[in-house]
Fold this protein.
Amino acid sequence: MPEDANDEQLNRLDALYSWHPFTQMQEYTQKGSFHICKAQGCWLWDTHGNRYLDGTASNWSNIHGHLDPDLKQALIKQLEELDQTSYKDQSHPNATLLCAEFAKIAPEGLTRTFFTDNGSCAIETAIKQSFRYWQLMGHPEKTQCIGLANGYHGDTFGAMSVGNSEGFHGPFSQWFFPVHRIPAPTCQEYAGHTYHADDKESLQALEKLLQSRARNIAFLIMEPLIQGPAGMKLMPYGFLKAVSNLCKHYNVHVILDEIFVGLGRLGTLFACIQENVTPDFLCLSKGLTGGFMPFGVTLCQEAIYQAFLGSFKEGKTFYHGHTFAANPLITAVCLKNIQKLQQQIPRIQETISYFQKAIAASFNNHPYIKEIRQRGLVCALELYPGTPESNFPQEERIAHHITLKLREQGILIRGVGNDLFFIPPLCISKHEINHLVSTTASTIENYLDKYAPCLTATTH
Ligand SMILES: *Cc1c(COP(=O)(O)O)cnc(C)c1O
């Protein structure tokens, strides 16, 4: 913490001058703020010296732990050499080496890398490249696109348009471009066991749409394997492959949003390789620098890149970019992170198998858990009052209240509606998993033992 700042002053200034994302500021300023000022590994400290387990991987971004010494070293080294430079019409070593690294590790065929500085912008890039590709290839009629129900791809206008998050984006929908929407498949799975899986309706809708409209459709966009922001909604294995095959058959691009599921979260470098799928575009962001810095990457197939080549006069240049795209400091950290991640994959797979056993041991047949959805280092716990056919009203924000109790116990996780989420840093230890899971289980019990009977009493 800066030496001239004290806690009381920070809380006052935060309430007076800040505006936090996805936060009801009236509620936030009333409850008093909470400043994190230090981190190490999977742990965060507040300005009072209290320690918290980072159960959200700091917005799903952390891989090797906070202030990982190797990433820190890469950043410090780069700080001796070059801070920022343009990437228009010139390059610098980290950016070039990073592109080569992606070409080496990405699913076969994804040879080209375009840099941005956040997830939404990685999505915008793919959308614009796809639309423009079809114009350049003599198919200006391909102006439409397909998204999935409950999809989330970011908060900029293009990303909001292709997404489908009524709660977040509804008020802005009159300014969205039109998108065909197919239903999302449903799936329940945890500890490697599938309890329910259904993608029939979704695939039928897609096939019907493609049969009648493919001629006018540029791309389909989806999050493979898990729709994260929608509440960790799993997709049956095989769905991605089927979608990819249909799109290929009907000459429609596939844009995969791996901003959440990519880079080890599901135990593989890329989620799509689990179904042996190579998309036309693959978007990455959250874990790219292991949680150090903002970054976004859009990978695409060589043929897409080739379509933009020509003499200057032909006007095929991709006029799109951001000031800090390919920043030397960020790319230095990303390069080190990606190299380190490749070595960590076997360890992450071991962590996943431990995680799923720990989840099953604590929450299988738990009196207040209606459904567990878990895959990789991702888990959602859906809470209910414990009697069949009963539910907590969403507006009670049960999960949110439990996260506040958990914070007092030194655990930071997010809860939305009736769902609690574990999204730990990929380096989490067995001991830390035990702590996360057992503290959450006991906190749920303590809170709901008191709360659930009151609620049942008042609603009947
Ligand atoms: C976070 C996220 C985004 C948006 O990334 P930002 O960097 O927050 O703009 C897009 N898609 C998915 C699946 C995400 O989880």
About this structure: Residues 328-363 form the longest helix (36 residues). Residues 229 and 304 are 29 Å apart (CA to CA). The radius of gyration is 23 Å.
